[in-house]
Every structure is written in C-alpha cells, then in structure tokens.
Specification:
Layout: E1 2-9, H1 15-21, H2 25-38, E2 43-48, E3 52-59, H3 67-76
Antiparallel strand pairs: 1-3, 2-3
Amino acid sequence: MTVRMIGVNHRTAPLALRERLALTGPRLDTAVDALRLSHPRGEFVILNTCNRTEVYVAGVAAAVPTADQLTTLLCRC
C-alpha cells in the first residue's frame, strides 16, 4: 500500500495562500469528485482547518496520484 500526503499549514504558507487553498462547501465537493473520477481505486481524506489544508491518499501504487497530480488538483479546486 502506498500513502501520500500534500498540504499547507501556518508554517509553510502565508494566510492569503491558505485561504485560497481552503476546501470548504462546493469546493470540497468538487475536490472529492475530481479525486474519485481521476483515481477511482484510491482512498482519500481531505483535512481542512483554519490553519491547514491537507490531502491524504492511500491505495495500491497504481491507484495513488503523484504529488504533482495532487498539487494540480488542489490548485484547480
């Protein structure tokens, strides 16, 4: 099993960037749908608090998106 995580927090990104990357409401739904469609065999958790946004992915290696793919998805949402 492969596990991958990407994210930003109060130590790695300024507030303005964290606010832009926060996944809430319809943006959260969009991100979850995009993950499911692009990697249907993976398992996903999105953690969003006032100080961080993190995306965790697990599954067999072929089902887990790369860090670049996750970053692109997060930026699109």
